[in-house]
DNA sequence: CGTTGCCTTGAAATGGATCAATTCCGGTGG
DNA sequence: CCACCGGAATTGATCCATTTCAAGGCAACG
């Protein structure tokens, strides 16, 4: 397993004006605590395509995504791949306290992460119920997303999968301040396919079909939701 | 929404010799705390098929499964159903702190649950980091299971799905003390189908195929793993 | 013993996968 | 500025695993 991240500095210079502050775990901390945690953490960067950690390896650190996007995935022995989720700024990697990584994570484009040793973090959080509650909150959200994805994979058609994915992606981008109907899709078609349980060809065909229907417009690196309401109805939303 | 559970007594008489003690959240509590929590909780029972709570309703309570099995599921508007998971004794329902239920839960056979009002529980857990950590642990496990299920739904064939399901079910039963290669499957074929993203016919056919292959033996209400190693290899396990 | 609710089995239909070319596009070098 | 190259995306033509449609079968129960 190659770890190709460059480590720079021992801790993040400016947690105060961190762009991911607010959505990350840090939101539960006051300034003093923030400074303390900063002492324990280091800031790491990874180039596009680099593997941050791999499935089944001993997990020694937690990460909080600061900038960029990662794909979180599992491989079957015969190299089939399932992308469990995409991690965005503010997402916490390693909520599960199990000793080994449950999945692999690699960078889509350049990413910047805050890394904290598991042990230090455990001691730090031990007597900070507010932080623990915040973690429960993130875990709960993560779980809700996973369950929603289970429905998508188990019971939705290809078109519904794509539509749901677009809506979900839009909502997540909104959540971190990137509003609007112009969606950047930094991941490749193959990533989308492996996320939705489809093949690259089906993803491509479905995008084309939606574009022909005037519902979306495809451009290099993304999509415009010309008719967001239509996309939502195609997604066969919850309840 | 019908709540057809009969409420009996204000709290569970004997948390000490509770059969689910040990795997439930309670494992993180000492005797004093256990007694305190018992004051806040009530013991409820539901008949087979009863709905404990439904998706999108306001969530006022947490539940810990004491006896029996529940199906945890979501419905799409057109009534397609996806069973997200089956809840066993020791499982905690409502880890997500969101105000509304993310899914519906109903009893498969008779069940007994410990119910605690969300608010009381929040105050109780607020200054008990050990309990919060225990919840994180359960949440982490739940999340890991959900992610494993995502792989199953996204990238496995019908036969692999069934085999994985049987192995997973065996392991979970082992976890609560029901060892051995004789698996009781209290849920119906339709439940299995809706859990694995298949149709009832495919489930039935695949079971039959495995039986013809001498890998399992079907009996009313369950299955015997005649060749567990074979089932494991058919499941195309992780990594 | 007839009914009712599951489960199983068979035959036909199909959505998405697979196989096989193209086309598109950003980068690179002449 | 243009030609060329390689990776990604698209498109078309089959194929096939699973669904869908349609009968039975079987055990529990009145």
From TrEMBL, chains A, B:
SMART domains named among the record's database cross-references: cNMP, HTH_CRP
Segments traversing the membrane: none
A cellular component annotation (GO) from this entry: cytosol
Keyword Transcription attached: yes
Domain (Cyclic nucleotide-binding) ranges: 25-94
A GO molecular function held by the record: DNA-binding transcription factor activity
InterPro entries attached to this UniProt entry: cNMP-bd_dom, cNMP-bd_dom_sf, Env_Response_Regulators, HTH_CRP, RmlC-like_jellyroll, WH-like_DNA-bd_sf, WH_DNA-bd_sf
Gene3D superfamilies associated with the record: Jelly Rolls (2.60.120.10), Winged helix-like DNA-binding domain superfamily/Winged helix DNA-binding domain (1.10.10.10)
Keywords for the protein's UniProt record, in alphabetical order: DNA-binding, Transcription, Transcription regulation
CDD domains cross-referenced by the UniProt entry: CAP_ED, HTH_CRP
Domain (HTH crp-type) ranges: 156-229
UniProt protein name: Nitrogen fixation protein FixK
Organism this protein belongs to: Bradyrhizobium lablabi
